[in-house]
TrEMBL record:
Stored InterPro entries: Aminotransferase_I/II_large, DapL/ALD1, PyrdxlP-dep_Trfase, PyrdxlP-dep_Trfase_major, PyrdxlP-dep_Trfase_small
The Aminotransferase class I/classII large domain, residue ranges: 35-405
UniProt-listed Enzyme Commission number(s): 2.6.1.83
Record keywords, A-Z: Aminotransferase, Pyridoxal phosphate, Transferase
Pfam (any one): Aminotran_1_2
Reaction catalysed by this enzyme: (2S,6S)-2,6-diaminopimelate + 2-oxoglutarate = (S)-2,3,4,5-tetrahydrodipicolinate + L-glutamate + H2O + H(+)
GO MF annotation list: L,L-diaminopimelate aminotransferase activity; pyridoxal phosphate binding
Co-factor(s): pyridoxal 5'-phosphate
One GO term (biological process): lysine biosynthetic process via diaminopimelate, diaminopimelate-aminotransferase pathway
Protein's recorded name: LL-diaminopimelate aminotransferase
Superkingdom, natural source: Bacteria
Annotated binding of substrate, by residue: Y15, G42, K109, Y132, N187, N292, R388
Taxonomic source organism: Dulcicalothrix desertica PCC 7102
Length: 412
């Protein structure tokens, strides 16, 4: 009989979101009239910017006439999109990133998982706790971990705890790790990293021969001018970091699908015989072999993000979500709840009141306010005692949810 990849059996059963759905459904069955508001989702809610839609409609027309029709595009993405990204997202901020180092893809989630294809199986891997679960689960699937314990921690991974005590930025490890996942602005905590913090990581990585996987999916939500948007704003990062970016959160492309990964040509790793190998070449080979590029229509939509109208419209989208985040922060604070994040990120990370567990707070919020959020413990053992509230929602829903909470709290 055909055998399977046994590593999949090590994965915790998809627990978090199914369990949320189970509790919400059970509540809705006995409370048919309750209008439940979901602030748990990590998906955008507002329509695509007009500039992107117009560009995609035009691209569909291109596909309808023989002269402009496009078949397979370059696996790495069209040069006109890569050049705009290099100029507007990186060079404008002083980052030394060339268009040829940018790989267009259909999502950061897949890139974060696929990147493991080009790395060895004996690397020591560090993740923060709590963390975006994709980083952990893709390593489990690739056989880079042992089994999971009752707290949800996998053997063989190095967990770097983040909490209010360290401003939700991990201490630099005392041991040597080979691959490090960092996500700033952070999902789920909404925390950001200063230049000094990122510099400490870059220095660590360079002196240990480590590579940083830097997930900047939320960089567009940064409003504080001192906070870096890219790891390449830090000197030396070209020699130790890969950056993942996405159009999902800044331009509402979660259902349209377009993202990018930056692999500097100066980045190297070690082969089994100890020689130094360019990572760019491996990723280029991986993408040209296993990927056939993002649709022309979608890439034209992404390109429009960099037009004058596109910039104004994406900024308006971000301002809209960040106003939601501000309302959430203010109202929860008014209700006597401690909040973090939500200033340069669309997530507010809440300390559960009265030392409630993440799930007890979830139940209280659901039953007393009919509001749904995400229990922090679902993002890792050190997320216990915290709760994520997302700013991705309509203004009316955010206002109504906060009204219910301020009226019902403090709860005992
Ligand atoms: C939403 C999100 C992404 C983007 O994923 P896509 O596949 O591009 O939609 C990447 N990283 C994190 C942490 C996210 O929350």
């Amino acid at each position: 009989m055909a055998t399977i990849n046994d590593n999949y059996l090590k994965l915790k059963a998809g627990y978090l979101f199914p369990e949320i759905a189970r509790r919400v459904n059970a509540f809705a069955e006995t409370n048919a009239n309750a209008k439940v508001i979901r602030l748990g989702i990590g998906d955008v809610t507002e329509p695509l910017p007009e500039a992107c839609r117009t560009a995609m409609i035009k691209a569909v027309e291109d596909m309808g006439n023989r002269d402009d029709f496009k078949g397979y595009g370059p696996e790495q993405g069209y040069a006109w999109l890569r050049e705009k990204i290099a100029k507007h997202d990186f060079q404008s901020r002083g980052c030394d990133v060339d268009a040829s180092e940018i790989f267009i893809s259909d999502g950061s989630k897949c890139d974060c998982g696929n990147i493991l294809d080009i790395f060895g199986n004996n690397n020591t891997i560090a993740v923060t706790d709590p963390v975006y679960p994709v980083y952990v689960d893709t390593n489990v699937m690739a056989g880079h971990t042992g089994d999971v314990n009752e707290k949800g921690e996998y053997g063989g991974l190095v967990y770097l705890p983040i909490s209010a005590d360290n401003n939700f930025t991990a201490e630099i490890p005392s041991q040597k790790v080979d691959l490090i996942y960092l996500c700033f602005p952070n999902n789920p905590t909404g925390a950001t990293a200063s230049k000094e913090h990122l510099k400490a990581w870059v220095d660590y990585a360079r002196s240990n021969g480590s590579i940083i996987f830097f997930d900047a999916a939320y960089e567009a939500f940064i409003s504080d001018p001192d906070i870096p948007h890219s790891i390449y704003e830090i000197e030396g990062a070209r020699d130790c970091a890969i950056e993942f970016r996405s159009f999902s959160k800044n331009a509402g492309f979660t259902g349209t699908r377009c993202a990018l990964t930056v692999v500097p040509k100066t980045l190297t790793g070690s082969s089994a015989d100890g020689s130094s190998v360019e990572i760019w070449k491996l990723w280029n080979r991986r993408q040209s072999t296993k990927f056939n590029g993002v649709s022309y229509i979608v890439q034209r939509g992404a390109e429009a993000v960099y037009s004058e109208e596109g910039k104004a419209q994406t900024k308006a989208l971000i301002d809209f979500y960040m106003e939601n985040a501000k309302i959430i922060r203010e109202k929860l604070t008014e209700a006597g709840i401690s909040v973090y994040g939500g200033v340069n990120a669309p997530y507010v990370w809440v300390k559960t009141p009265n030392s409630l567990s993440s799930w007890d707070f979830f139940d209280k919020l659901l039953h007393t306010c009919n509001v749904v959020g995400t229990p922090g413990s679902g993002f890792g053992a050190a997320g216990e005692g915290y709760f994520r509230i997302s700013a991705f929602n309509s203004r009316a829903n955010v206002e109504e949810a906060m009204k219910r909470i301020t009226e019902k709290f403090p709860i005992t």
